[in-house]
Prior knowledge:
Elements: E1 14-17, H1 77-97, E2 104-113, E3 119-127, E4 130-133, E5 137-142, E6 145-150, H2 167-180, E7 184-187, E8 193-197, E9 204-214, E10 220-228, E11 234-239, E12 242-245, E13 255-260, E14 266-267, E15 269-270, E16 276-280, E17 288-289, E18 291-292, H3 305-327, E19 340-343, E20 346-348, E21 351-352, E22 355-359, E23 364-367, H4 380-394, H5 404-423, E24 433-434, E25 448-449, H6 478-494, E26 497-501, E27 504-508, H7 521-535, H8 542-557, H9 562-572, E28 580-581, E29 584-586, E30 594-595, E31 600-603, E32 606-608, E33 615-619, E34 625-627, E35 633-636, E36 642-651, E37 657-667, E38 673-676, E39 680-682, E40 687-694, E41 705-712, E42 719-724, E43 730-734, E44 745-751, E45 760-768, E46 779-787
Parallel strand pairs: 4-8, 16-19, 19-23, 30-37
Antiparallel strand pairs: 1-13, 2-3, 3-4, 3-5, 5-6, 7-9, 8-9, 9-10, 10-11, 12-22, 13-14, 14-18, 15-16, 16-17, 20-21, 22-23, 24-25, 26-27, 28-29, 29-32, 31-35, 33-36, 34-35, 36-37, 38-46, 39-46, 40-45, 41-44, 41-46, 42-43, 42-45
Helix pairs in contact: 3-4, 4-5, 5-6, 5-7, 6-7, 6-9, 7-8, 8-9
Amino acid sequence: MNTPSNRAASPQGSQRTLRSLAATVVITAAALALSALPASAGAASPSGSSEGSPRPQALPQIKATARPGSGVVHLSPGQRRRMLDQVTDAAPDTARSLGLGTREKLIPKDVIQDADGTIHTRYERTYAALPVIGGDLVVHQRHGARTVTYASKETLTLPATTAEVPAATAKKAALDKAASKGTRKASAHTDPRLVVWMTGGRPKLAWETVVTGMQQDGSPSERHVVTDAASGTTLNNAEHVESAQGNSLYSGQVTIGSTVQDDGTYALIDPERGGHRTLDSSATSSGALVTGADDVWGDGTAADPQTAAVDAAYGAQTTWDFYKDRFGRNGIANDGRGSTSRVHYQAMQGVPLANANWQDGCFCMSYGDGADGQHPVTSLDIAAHEMAHGVTSATAGLGNVGESPALNEAISDMMAAAVEFYADSPNDVPDYTMAELDDLHGDGKPIRYMDLPSKAGISAVGYAPLDYWTPQTKWSEAHMAAGVGDHFFYLLAEGSGKKTINGVDYDSPTYDGLPVAGIGLTDAADVMYRALTVYMTSTTDYAGTRTATLQAAADLYGSDSDAYEAVANAWAAVNIGIRFVNHIAVDPMPTEPVAEGQPVSRQITASSSRPGPLTYSAKSLPRGLSIDRTTGLMTGTPDKAGDYNSVIAITNAAGDTRELSFTWTVLESGGHFFINPTTYVIPKWGTVESPLVYRGKPGKAPSDLKVTVDIDHQFGNAMVVDLIAPDGTVVPVKPWGPWVLTPDLHETYTVDASAVPAVGTWKLRVTDGTPGIFDLDAGHLQRWSLAF
């Protein structure tokens, strides 16, 4: 059926009108069979239950004003290609200037130019012609000054580039590992490739095997299994197909791009968006191009197979337009190339797929028809979420280690919400929930709540989405850990407290109970997109994302702006980093107990979003301590034990003051017992020393000197502890081992120190002997003592 009003001027392409009736909505995260359980059974909060989370009031939204020259120059494909050619020619000189080794090379991946002339070039790296996974970096050239963002700052060197483990052995191990993770019909169509694994620790020679097959729900599987080429240990086993689950979304009447073919029929090929193609995969997984005799597609019901194709094509074009209109991005990979959408995808012949997914390999989205085969999983939320995975892959390339997978999912949720608000459809009113029109649980509730993620309840993996960051976040399932990023984004966009947006009620808490002012969805998305495309790398975690978004906010609005403070405060509200109060931010105060008679040196680290220096003052410090007015360094030797109600005041050049009150305890230390309660960070694979002054009886130390050590570390048995006597003699306290992954170390050891003098400064030396195969967090020497 053709009508004149639907005709385009060009015979090659047109915008077409379609009819679409009501359908139900869907989640845009991975395949997760969620059950509706009480929210209080979910994520971590200060009180251990989201029901007890602080509920700060709502604040007026911040008006973010763009900094002059902060915009991005929209490059044409030809301009971008020429710039990439230029940085490719200059790559050897760039590598040398960065101090990279002679066996290292830089391969340009992307280039971005700011309106003020700043150039950001993203590089992959090779070592002895081998790809380096986790070795990517971004060079920022600003007005003659250069900074670099590294995925890993480890020195890239290997003892050899010849594998001890044969490729065939690595391939077999990879197939077994993929099968153990649920990959069915696993196969490796290509041989393993030799790579350098640089993610999460020291560089290692490794085999990367790509194993394909099917996931448990029938989605395509593409597992990248990385095997240590020296030991055969599996270093990584990650699924690279990003999936979602749910039912189709009603989009109302929309327009989509189509192309007139030579025989006069029409095909769902969008000529204005890189030739995006929509395929029907009901017969074969590869799919057949969706065509029709006229240019009206679908009848708005799942019974018409074209309806799902309409939803998929509409989702693809709306997401394309969002990135182009908002950021000047020319397609998912910014190269003008259209992706492919495959609808009616099946888990296996005749078995419907309940999910949707994105695959880098085919540069495509695949949409199933729901568990019952009657509800195509083709909502706008899903399309935007899945294509955002493609944008992330083409830019930061977030990996599959630590918190990077969670960030990958969270960024897709953020951009899905932004696309929904961009589309502003009356049939799908924009909101910060997902699956809000679907009754997937039978309770009429959404599956995603960005204002309080834990409201989604317990998932199939046995956890609720996290509201706040904890040290365990890096070990949490990616879609659950993504709740931290979702919550941050909502707070940055809309702020905390109760409010109603487009008829939907929200009430977003904060970790510290303090309010957060939002900057609006548009500016929040701008900050997140710039952070992703300019400053984030394959290994970025939540703390790194905070740094990246703060730099992005500084670029866009200035580091002295309220928007910059809002970014910091939104992160603090999910327990990541510090917040600004009165325009002053202070690192956690170093106020753990001190000891009588032991020298103290504690540094206050603070900053202000307002220009000029800070000044410091203090009241009621422990007797014997004082504070430097200009540096904030507290020094001295406490001479009286007790509790002191101390107050630190920090003032910026504008006259804003922030006061911090706390009780500072001075422990007794003398006679036969001497203690140093100052906390020291134990660097990963590094060494730290803590001093302790003994002023007792002269002569030799006892043969039964008691050394008490309190260390927090995920592998306490790997810590090597030595005592350094006042004359420099090393007295062993604890050797490495045993080989048991035991957290923390709280022990008292007896050592023979009768050969060394007692009086003077003793030091406890702790060395992190964690094997390089483990990527564990840095530990802390909490305190230690000597009993003579």
